[in-house]
Amino acid sequence: MTPAPPAESTRVAVVGCGVVGATTAAELARRDADVTVFEAGDIASGASGRAAGVCYDAFAGKLDAEIAEAALAAFRERDALTDCPYVWLAREGDDRNAEAMADHVPRMQERGRDVEFIDPDDLDSRWPRLRTDDVERAAIAHDAGYVDTGDYTRETAQFAIAAGADIREETPARIDADGRVNGEDYDAVVVAAGVHTPRLVAAAGLPIPVKAYRVQAFLSVETPLSAAVPMCYDATGGYYLRPRDGRLFVGDGTVPEAKDPTDWDRTADQWFVEECADYLQQAVGQSVPEFRSWAGLCTATPDGDPLVGERAPGIYVATGFQGHGFMRGPAIGERLAEAVLGGEAPDAFDPRRFAPDEDFDIVEGMSLEE
Ligand SMILES: Cc1cc2nc3c(=O)[nH]c(=O)nc-3n(C[C@H](O)[C@H](O)[C@H](O)COP(=O)(O)OP(=O)(O)OC[C@H]3O[C@@H](n4cnc5c(N)ncnc54)[C@H](O)[C@@H]3O)c2cc1C
């Protein structure tokens, strides 16, 4: 009997090689798709190379919790996650955030998340340098840690190449009205181009309601305090803090205004750098000088949930992560690869759930509110 000829591979173009594009490409190639990745710059040259790398699974929504849990497992499998608990604080007088925490923590626990309220005295004995005397309410997520986002993304791209993907750096992609990428036909196109995704798909006649906004990052000089703080989101101060290579990383300096992703300021604002110094004085009792600071762009959607799935037959998008795309990237990429090869993408993230021209205000991603 003559053996059946091998089934033809599905030809997929992936646009963008950040964490989402790299993971999608690796998962597609592992499933024997014929994958070409177009990356306008270098691998991880977008938000994935500028991120803080804070990762946790403490979400109250079922799908969010499942995705974050799967992503943490993927980071651990690759030995990429440095375990470090994640603490949220609401300080005295901040009833809004204290109440939001009181509402969220039990819901996260119902989802099986390893999250609990923590007494400020317990916080103090565990991390004496963290100022806790005015903490009204605090919670701790035990299943959390941080990842070197650029290294992880580049390594994922190497896995994609090893599985047979062709990654073309310094190769911007254009998608035409017939869904061709740089003039070539594919069975499917995945647009994971971060803040550039709306512009690219709009040019193909497929607008999506996603806006780009600036967030900022401050890295201190080396300090022993780096070993003395947990990862922490101070909801009252509006800052997050994490140890990073012997330094302190402080974010987020959100500027909730829509930005043109082809023309924006990559340097941190002076007010942000000054506020970070003040914030460190309040939070850890010492104003640690700046080593480096920068800005990056995040993507916002009308409901704060991402747009992941098929926008039109054969054209898939993955964007709108509202500052939480890295920690979900590995699981989003896997689900997207499955959807491209005939599976289901999560309904809740369906990119067709809004009017394409829906207007909305940008809501900061780092928030205890939903
Ligand atoms: C300062 C900062 C801190 C952050 N901290 C965290 C955090 O702690 N935890 C977390 O989960 N998330 C964090 N985020 C958000 C996170 O970085 C993003 O959600 C995530 O990296 C998005 O990944 P992506 O692959 O979708 O997009 P990107 O990483 O932006 O990748 C898109 C890629 O597409 C390429 N591209 C664009 N146009 C084209 C084109 N025409 N052709 C080909 N390629 C193109 C770009 O060059 C880029 O490499 C942070 C973001 C910033 C800016």
Condensed summary:
With 370 residues, this protein is of the alpha/beta class.
The percentage helix is 25-40%
Please state the average pLDDT score.
Answer: 94
How big a fraction of the residues is strand?
A: 25-35%
By oligomeric state, this entry counts as single chain
Largest sheet features: 8 strands, mixed
- Which regions contain 5 or more consecutive residues with pLDDT less than 50? 1-6
* Strand segment count: 17
Distance between the termini: 61 Å
Number of helices: 8
Radius of gyration: 21 Å
Summary keywords:
D-Amino Acid Oxidase, Chain A, domain 2, 370 residues, binds flavin-adenine dinucleotide, FAD/NAD(P)-binding domain, alpha/beta, disordered N terminus, eight-stranded mixed beta sheet, six-stranded mixed beta sheet, 2 domains
Report on the architecture of this protein.
This protein is an alpha/beta fold and 370 residues long. It folds into 2 domains: 11-50 and 149-209 and 302-349, FAD/NAD(P)-binding domain (3-Layer(bba) Sandwich); 83-144 and 212-300, D-Amino Acid Oxidase, Chain A, domain 2 (2-Layer Sandwich). 27% of the residues lie in helices and 26% in strands. The protein is built from 8 helices and 17 strands. It has an 8-stranded mixed beta sheet with strand order 6-7-5-12-13-14-11-15. Strands 9-2-1-10-17-16 form a 6-stranded mixed beta sheet, sandwiched between helices. Strand 16 (307-312) and strand 17 (315-319) form a beta hairpin. Helix 2 packs across helix 8 (329-340). It is globular. The N and C termini lie far apart (61 Å). Residues 1-6 have low confidence and may be disordered. Bound molecules: flavin-adenine dinucleotide. Flavin-adenine dinucleotide (FAD) binds next to helix 1, strand 11 and strand 15. The site of flavin-adenine dinucleotide has 39 residues, from helix 1, strand 11 and strand 15.
